[in-house]
Amino acid sequence: MRIAEIFYSIQGEGPAMGRPATFVRLAGCNLSCEGCDTYLKQWQELSLPSVLERIEGKRVVVTGGEPTLQISELSELIALFHEAGKEVHIETNGTNPIPEAVLRKIHYAVVSPKRGSDFHLAYWSGKENVHFKFVIGRSSWCWTSRLLEEQVPSLPKERVWIMAFGADPEMREAREAWDLALRLGVNYSDRLHIRLRRR
Ligand code: SF4
């Protein structure tokens, strides 16, 4: 499996914000969002048991890049984590479906739809363990308040998160994200790792 990095940290955003986890970052993505450095990341080929060996604690966040690009090995890896009693989370851009049988072994799947991509909101919104994380910002793939006002009302509110884009701790759009989340009755997510300059 192509792995960019594995590290232990605290989840800084979304429904598991503040919780410790081992992050398994898979290599490669099918999108090329402005400002994303995923294509710069080196990767190594690791066997599934050796990935499991590197997991600290009970929670694992599989992220990317786009993890579903390696769906066959990803499915096996999630089964392995599940059998080992791990709480598995996954972060995806939503452009590829995750099979029902795999999704059932996942505690939270966080779909972060990128504006302009084919992200299948209707498919994901029917899945109880799927949360949506929309990023407000000025990049071409980010959402504006106006576009979210149209998208969000058709989704399950308790599973929707609005978050500001930010690689710098100031996060200019954070207040806008907060106000919009309040107005729409959905969740606000901060980016704690960015605020605190952690990974
Ligand atoms: S979907 Fe995520 S990983 Fe892929 S290019 Fe966009 S921001 Fe980067």
Write structural notes for this entry.
It is a single chain. This protein has 199 residues and is an alpha/beta fold. It has one domain (2-195): Aldolase class I (TIM Barrel, Alpha-Beta Barrel). The protein has helices at 48-53, 71-83, 100-103, 121-125, 145-151, 174-184, 192-195, and strands at residues 2-10, 20-26, 44-45, 59-63, 87-92, 108-111, 130-136, 160-164, 187-189. A 9-stranded mixed β-sheet has the order 3-1-2-4-5-6-7-8-9, covered by helices on one side. Helix 6 links the parallel strand 8 and strand 9 (187-189). The longest helix is centred in the middle third of the chain and has 13 residues, at 71-83. The chain is globular, with a radius of gyration of 16 Å. The relative contact order is 0.16. The mean pLDDT is 95. The structure holds iron/sulfur cluster. The site of iron/sulfur cluster has 11 residues, from loops.
Main pleated-sheet profile = 9 strands, mixed
What is the topology, as strand order, of the major beta sheet?
3-1-2-4-5-6-7-8-9
Helix-strand topology string: EEEHEHEHEHEHEHEH
Indicate the low-confidence ranges by residue numbers: none
In CATH, what is the class?
Answer: Alpha Beta
Ligands bound, unique: iron/sulfur cluster
Number of domains: 1
Radius of gyration: 16 Å
